[in-house]
Amino acid sequence: MTSNEVLAMYENIAALTGRMAAAAIEGDMEALARLETQCAIQSAAARNGVPKLEGDQRKRKIDLLKQIMANDRAVRDVTEPWMGQLDRAMSAAH
User: 31: which residues sit within 8 A by CB, 6+ positions away?
Assistant: First the structure.
C-alpha cells in the first residue's frame, strides 16, 4: 500500500463515518448498519499495517483520524442510549 493509498483509505473512512453519524442522528439504523459494513471493508486493508507517513501526509492522516474519532463519538452519542433502552426493554419483556 502506497502512502497515497493510505490517505485515500482514511479519507474514505472519514467520509463513511461522517455519513454514519448523519444516519444515526436521523435515526436511520438500517443505513447506519450498511455504512458500518462498508467502513469495515474499507478499513480491512489496514489490518496488515500501513506504511509510515511523514510531513504533510502524516499531519493529514492525524487530521483524518481525529475526524473519524469525532464521527465515531457522534454515532455513540446516539446509539449508546438507544442500546441501553433496548436492553431495558428486553429485560422487562422476560
Answer: 19, 23
- The answer to whether the Cα torsion of 72, 76, 78, 79 is positive or negative is positive
Per-residue pLDDT tens digits for 31-64: 999 999 999 999 888 888 889 999 999 999 999 9
DSSP at 28: -
Domains of the chain and CATH, by start: 3-93 (1.20.58.380)
CA pair distance 65, 18, nearest whole angstrom: 12
The closest of 31, 15, 14 to 78, measured between CA atoms, is 31
